[in-house]
Task: structure prediction
Amino acid sequence: MSSRGTGKPMGRGDSRRVLAGIAAGVLAVVGTIAAVVVIRVGGDAVDEKGLAQFYEQPPNAADGAPGTLVRHEGLAGTPAASKAWRIMYRSTDLNGVPIVVTGTVVTPLGPPPPGGRTVLAWGHPTTGTAPECAPSHGFDPFVGIEGLRLLLDRGYTVVATDYAGMGTTGPDSYLVGVTAAHTMLDAVRAATAIPEAEAGTSVVLWGHSQGGQAALFTAEQAGSYAPELSVKAVAVAAPAADLTALMRTHLDDISGVTIGSYAFTAYASVYGDSVPGARIEDVLTPAALGVVPIMNELCLLTNIDELHRIGQPLVGDFTRVDPTTTQPWQGLLEQNSAGGAAFGAPLFVAQGDHDELVVPTDTDGFVAHERGIGIDVTYEKVPDATHATIAYLALPSLMEWLDRVGH
Result:
């Protein structure tokens, strides 16, 4: 080791000073990170105050145009170099009925580009269906947004809907594609209504699992539902795109019971009064009918062990009929599967080869279908990625792709 600029050997004292300097630098970085964490946690604690009141809808909250704000409030526990809000906004369900939805908006500090920032609408994977399972309702509403730091660093305003029926009162919308699409598009509109969010009308869609289905339906619905918005790119990780294939794969295992407890409850609620044979007792066994209401009260991420404990006895005794081959359930699964319409934006699809929930062969088939209807698909298969890790392990490829097409 030599002293830079002198060519003289570095003595022990010099080495110690250098090492001390390095150590001081490391400690400074660690201290900064710790300070940021403390600030975030402290901010999250502040944001918890008045949480219940925020999600209570005022009288006639749904009256107004889709995408307009009912209320919004600034958040203290934001990611570094950003500002953020919790939002309540208006949308519509698949039948055009006015509904109220909640979510979050976060935008980086610094000057926006001319015309405003591109808005990235994020669709979250399954967290449950009860109101308190909403991501915006959590202690840290940003922790689950896959790639958030990278997206903020690229200048995106990020908006994350909770979907209808979560966060605040609304219809159950689990895997109801058109309703999810409306809530994502109206979340973008709501972001543009906050001047400080600096949101423009260019949009990128990004979703994982259930959020992948939502993002795909959003791309399909955008032109007719929100023609003023311009979808530049669509990205999905292990999307729940083909619900028939997904249900067929898991009809007789615990994943099928867990997903089905959410999905069949939602479908019976949404379609049961208008579609003959779509009541929940038409598809589930008496044993399942006694347990499913309890499962729907439990959030997936915090109660997975309990969900599996009470759901495991139903494996093999969950459905009365095969919903993938019996009407009206077969038709409802097909109706809520993505791929019914082409869209003009390029599509990025990531799939892990160790995914046991959305299995690779199902995604292979979906990608082939999308290419067959003229969509420009980039398909990234990630070795060793599971359903839980695919959205994170795909981020390097996704960011490289977005840097080319996402603005």
Summary: The first strand starts at residue 69 and ends at 74.
